[in-house]
Predict the structure.
Amino acid sequence: MTATAHPAEWRRPGLGTKLLYAVGAAATNLKLRALSTFLVIFYNQVVGLPPETVGAILMAALVVDAVLDPLVGQLSDNFRSRWGRRHPFMLASALPYAVSFYLLWNPPVGWSDGALAVYLAVCVISVRVFDTFFELPHQALAPELAKDYDDRTVLLSMRHFFMVAGGLGMTILAYQVFLKERPDGTGGVLARDGYFAYSLTGALIIFAAILVSTLGTARHIPHLHQAPARQITIPAMLREVAATLNNRAFIVTTIAAMLIAIAVGARNGLEIYFGLYFWELRQSQLATLATFSVIGGFLGVFLAPVVGRYLGKKWGVITVFATAVLVHVTPVSLRLLGLAPENGTPELLVLLYGEEIINATLAAATGVLLFSIIADVVEDAEVKTGRRSEGLLLSAQNLFRKVISGMGVFIATGVLAFVDFPEKAERSQIAPETLRGLGLAYIPTILGLYGLAILCLLAFNINRKVHEENLRRLREAAAVAAEQIADDPEAPPALPGEPAPIKP
């Protein structure tokens, strides 16, 4: 078995490198927030497609994207070039990714529902495919750049900072600038004209973020792991994939991520419906909510390393995750119980703004810690298999998460169809029983899915001690491999944990 080539010398990334790496996260989360917040309401309420049609297309696109993930992951793990394993894919994705995002929000006028459905399918699949070619290699860089248990959490906290800036920051601009509701009631998210500037700006940000992150980390390519020079058959590759993925920590985090993805998909798909119709908020108030979410996201970035350092990543993520879920469902629960303030009152805004900033803080810390424990699986798998397989591990998890997350989008659109939510609806004209049904369906769905995810995380088995032991064994294996190469360049390197060869 051939191990991934060890770099000549690993260098701890400085602040500048961490920032340049982290900038890239703005591209993916801008796309993610745009699709989850505005795409359903745009194609349903503005373009006029039925919600179940939009939901089915988005779910199908997720399946196509997910099937591509392991192919891209395995390809980037084994790709050899003067630009290393990851950077060529990241760079090549920049332009087609940005163009696809722009086209998604500018469908032709006057087409039939069938033609528009095909247009939506082509555009959304293109966006997701090119995002995969950037995001998977970009994620896979994190475990290589930061190996230390706590330093890795710091790097991923900075990455999350730009995720918040790109995703929620662009959402605020949408509400306040591009899709701003005018004093006479025109404009807003239900008017088509604002989506041109919104999509063009988003496309330019995506393009710039990818270029900055890719070129800004390129100088570290000589110090990253290089793919081995080898030829491998399909059966052998399948055996390697099975061996790599047969890891308890990977299985646990994958199932948890799948459950979270379903819940997030349902939550994001219904979020704007709750804001506009359930709470009857004005768009300026939705923008304020998004602003509080950004503030909370930034606070969570600083909270995550502290929690991880004192509670450990596993118990830290479980603690903040459970608290975030309880905080999130509080306002809707109070409304269903008849205890929430009336719509339009200052008291309601205090409740919603308070929930948003607390939940966003805890959710951001949860996201950072969860990604950090997933990254720790990389070294655990390398110790067991002798292969550096960040791309495969992350892509395999993305495969399961993305396939199943389509269920979240499908749940959101299914709920809208089930409660017979009207198309092109006006605020204050939705039947009370329709809104109550929306809330009654939402609470148990969110609590059930998030609760199961938390139970899965209880079985995670990598802590600080285990991670540091994995790093020690990998250092020893690298030293043994260096000796073998010096003594016999043709000998295969030893796997981590194998005894050093006895010299004659």
In short: The mean pLDDT is 80. The first helix runs from residue 15 to 23. The two ends are 23 Å apart (CA to CA). The chain has 15 helices and no strands.
